[in-house]
Specification:
six-stranded parallel β-sheet, elongated, about 220 residues, Rossmann fold, five-stranded antiparallel β-sheet, 11 strands
Length: about 220
């Protein structure tokens, strides 16, 4: 996949490194050449100095052939402008825009832009860690609406089926790790002593999961 990443700060550099390591063709744009040092000496993608919403720079970066574009600079305005150019003018199939101001996220979602609000995501993550410390949150999706959490199966669920440890639309058993090996269960799979269970949980159902696991009364 041909990917353009606008902004070579800590986030942009990490995204670029990961994509490049997985075999994608990555071009990184940043107005400050010194910022490319964050990519490290092993980065084999292309580095391009310039303003990420300048169409000449974008054409030089190969925007017409790009299959994905990520706007990750520290400026919401620059990210929005660049993302809209990539999406509406060059019809890049996958465009992701990083935003600091969560109030803008819904507006640009209506324009067809996938936005990641680091402020909202960070607030949701802190809330999860403070309010649901008994659950080990592995990942958050969207703006924190869905989380992937991990917990050891409680004794009262041992011998019961996965269907009894799930709530449709709220809590889904994604995987079970048993004696160091993970597998994808079916609804009829039974929990065993020592199982570590990975759940996909809606944020509104985290307390319900704690009750299901016996971590809270109710």
């Amino acid at each position: 996949m041909k990917v353009i990443v606008m902004g070579c700060g800590k986030v942009g550099a990490q995204v670029s490194q990961r994509l490049e390591a997985e075999g994608h063709e990555v071009t990184v744009i940043d107005p400050e050449p010194a910022s490319f040092a964050l990519l490290g000496p092993g980065f084999r993608g292309r580095r391009l100095s310039g303003v990420g919403f300048d169409q000449k720079v974008l054409l030089d970066a190969g925007i017409e052939q790009a299959e994905a574009f990520a706007a990750t600079s520290t400026s919401d305005t620059a990210n929005i402008v660049a993302a809209r150019i990539a999406r509406t003018i060059y019809h890049v199939p996958r465009v992701v825009c990083r935003l600091y101001d969560p109030r803008r996220a819904e507006i640009y979602k209506r324009l067809g832009l996938i936005t990641i609000s680091v402020t909202t995501w960070g607030a949701e993550r802190i809330y999860e860690l403070l309010s649901h410390a008994e659950l080990d949150t592995l990942l958050s999706f969207g703006q924190g609406q869905v989380a992937l959490v991990e917990a050891e199966v409680p004794s009262h669920l041992v011998g019961r089926s996965v269907s009894q440890g799930s709530v449709p639309g709220e809590i889904i058993v994604v995987a079970i790790t048993r004696q160091g090996e993970a597998f994808l269960p079916i609804l009829g799979s039974e929990f065993r002593q020592g199982d570590v269970v990975q759940y996909a949980v809606h944020a509104s159902a985290l307390e319900r999961l704690e009750m299901l696991l016996g971590l809270k009364g109710g």
